[in-house]
Amino acid sequence: MEYILYEVDGAVGTITINRPRALNALNSQVLEELDATLDAVDLDTVRCLILTGAGEKSFVAGADIGEMSTLTKAEGEAFGKKGNDIFLKLESFPIPVIAAVNGFALGGGCEISMSCDIRICSENAVFGQPEVGLGITPGFGGTQRLARLVSPGMAKQLIYTARNIKAAEAYRIGLVNAVYPQEELLPAAMKMAKGIAMQAPIAVRNCKKAINEGLQVSIEEGVAIEEKIFGDCFETEDQRAGMGNFLAPKDQKLKVVPFQNK
Which residue out of 7, 91, 111, 123 is catalytically annotated? Predict the structure, then answer.
């Protein structure tokens, strides 16, 4: 991999987009390497992912404008599909993904962060969908996910005006869950990821599946999805271990249940 770094610490994997000279901009090679990295994650051992960008200036500054500038209509649509296919894979990835947004998250950078389950950012983070200033629309899901995350009205305002917002406003409108000093961002992401990794992994995966699928349907269909997934948990060793530990005498309770992902 030239532009993607992947490291594993216990049950937590960290994916770093490593193209700092270009502010980690997304070109075709970065997207392809990210796709291959996701395919290579060992889901038997890794229970949570962190996605971040190299350096202190930028998470992902956007898609590579140099690459996009000469695209034809058909090529533009194909490039959008490439990004969307990978971001949909990230969004529906079996385990949770935390975006640790350090610096610029513009255009494709904002879009890839919104494909993650949870977003936290540094105090110098900047978010935006500036595409209309370039004569294009967001192409990697920005018109869809931003409206779902922060309300259609706010999404339209940000997209129509191409205005960037700082970390404090991103937190105010609910685009990010928390804001940290730069030096505390990755430790905070790791702490959160390890906290997730301590829980029953099948249950966490099922919760992600239920939330994601339920958001696309009516509440009646959503609770039906939840009922089935809830029932599925009762055939797992993790459920027996978790409830068994809860019901155990106080002197026999474990501080950390050794969930087995089974």
Answer: 111
